[in-house]
Amino acid sequence: MPKKTQDNTTPREIPRPAEGEVICVVKKTLGGDHLSVRCFDGVERLARIPGRMKKKVWMREGDVILAAPWDIQSNKCDVVYKYGNDEVRKLIEFGVIDPNILDQLRG
After folding, report:
1. What is the per-residue pLDDT for 81?
2. Rounded to whole angstroms, how far apart are CA atoms 106 and 78?
3. CDD domains this protein is in (predicted)?
4. In this structure, are residues 83 and 65 in contact, taking their beta carbons and an 8 Å threshold?
5. What pLDDT, on a 0 to 100 scale, did the predictor assign at position 70?
6. pLDDT at position 83, please?
7. pLDDT-derived band of residue 80, with 50, 70 and 90 as boundaries?
8. Rounded distance, CA 90 to CA 84, Å?
9. pTM score, two decimals?
């Protein structure tokens, strides 16, 4: 029996930062599901990987993520989404990310 294929697949929409979210670059993995990240708003934060992403999405230094800073402690945040390389390129094309700032944060 032949497998059915879906021809009507549409590309997923890339999540953009909403109110209370910021794009960050992973600076260092700390273990225990925590990361040190440098955000586009100039703040360095301690990021927590939520349980729904722990074993499914692997993060390393230099990755671009979407994070939601905490209300109580502004130097901590939760990871919302990890962008792939092609998604980062599209965000640069759309003007969401400035490539010069991205190079500075990674370097």
Report:
1. 95
2. 20
3. S1_IF1A
4. yes
5. 94
6. 94
7. very high
8. 10
9. 0.83
Give 34: exposed, middle or buried? Use CB within 10 Å, 0-12, 13-18, 19+: middle
Pull the structure tokens for residue 40. 């586009």
Under the banding of pLDDT at 50, 70 and 90, the label for residue 54 is confident
Per-domain residue ranges of the chain: 25-106
Query: What does the alpha-carbon distance between residue 84 and residue 92 come to, in Å, rounded to a whole number?
Result: 13
Q: What is the DSSP string of 23-58?
A: EEEEEEEEETTEEEEEETTS-EEEEE--TTTTTT--
- Helix pair 85-94, 99-106: axis angle to 10 deg: 140
- In this structure, CATH architecture of domain 25-106: Beta Barrel (2.40)
